[in-house]
Amino acid sequence: MEVRVQSAPFRPGEELDAFTAAVPGAGAVVSFTGIVRDDSGTLAEMVIEHYPGMTEAALTQIAEDAQARWSLSGGLIIHRFGVLAPGEQIMMVATAARHRQVAFEAAEFLMDYLKSRAPFWKKERTATGDAWVAAKDSDEASLDRW
Amino acid sequence: MIDVLYFAWVRERIGLPKERVETGAQTVADLVEELRQREARYAAAFEDLSALRVAVDQELSDFDAPLSGVREVAFFPPMTGG
């Protein structure tokens, strides 16, 4: 499984095409892309802080856990850090397997763990001030199903 | 000597991202207590440990973890990836 932590933007379509081309024989490819949301209409930018070194190690561990649990033909995790504008891609995961159920489940597993076990912190900057995004109890609870 | 790192609002509250700490602390909790005694900004950052997470040598850990042989301890709020 490929893990990339980067500040540069990426193109989900191109990433998905390249990922799919690299997993011949897979009957199912699932992908998820997270995008900077502006619920209030006042978001100027989102700043994503991370813990260099631990971030890569934590994502690699999550990827290895997924591979140990499901028979995957391949996997991809891309997560950005730095300053992002509303509408920009934050992250993406993709999974490939023989059948769709495995690909869907593994993608959800990656997302659930990425939310609360990978050392990223989001801060929203608006015209009225800055605020750290608080972790949700539901994100922690969603790990229980695995 | 241990490298102590702070992220997100913990970093902002303490006012620096990283420092080297000379400590005889046996556990993470002991280290937190030493830091709390230093200055009000540390006391403020470590006021509610239930709001904090800790990593020891870049692995998620807990406040009971021993510090023997440890090189790096990081404090931060619950993570918000994805």
TrEMBL record, chain A:
Pfam families: MoaE. It catalyses: 2 [molybdopterin-synthase sulfur-carrier protein]-C-terminal-Gly-aminoethanethioate + cyclic pyranopterin phosphate + H2O = molybdopterin + 2 [molybdopterin-synthase sulfur-carrier protein]-C-terminal Gly-Gly + 2 H(+). Pathway: Cofactor biosynthesis; molybdopterin biosynthesis. GO terms for biological process: Mo-molybdopterin cofactor biosynthetic process. It comes from the Bacteria. InterPro entries: MoaE_sf, Mopterin_biosynth_MoaE. GO terms for molecular function: molybdopterin synthase activity. Its EC number is 2.8.1.12. Gene3D superfamilies: Molybdopterin biosynthesis MoaE subunit. Keywords: Molybdenum cofactor biosynthesis. SUPFAM superfamilies: Molybdopterin synthase subunit MoaE. PANTHER family: MOLYBDOPTERIN SYNTHASE RELATED (PTHR23404). Converts molybdopterin precursor Z into molybdopterin. This requires the incorporation of two sulfur atoms into precursor Z to generate a dithiolene group. The sulfur is provided by MoaD. Belongs to the MoaE family. Heterotetramer of 2 MoaD subunits and 2 MoaE subunits. Also stable as homodimer. The enzyme changes between these two forms during catalysis. This is Molybdopterin synthase catalytic subunit. It comes from Tropicimonas isoalkanivorans.
TrEMBL record, chain B:
Gene3D superfamilies: 3.10.20.30. InterPro entries: Beta-grasp_dom_sf, Mopterin_synth/thiamin_S_b, ThiS/MoaD-like. It holds the Pfam family ThiS. It comes from the Bacteria. This is Molybdopterin synthase subunit MoaD. It comes from Tropicimonas isoalkanivorans. The lineage of its organism: Bacteria, Pseudomonadati, Pseudomonadota, Alphaproteobacteria, Rhodobacterales.
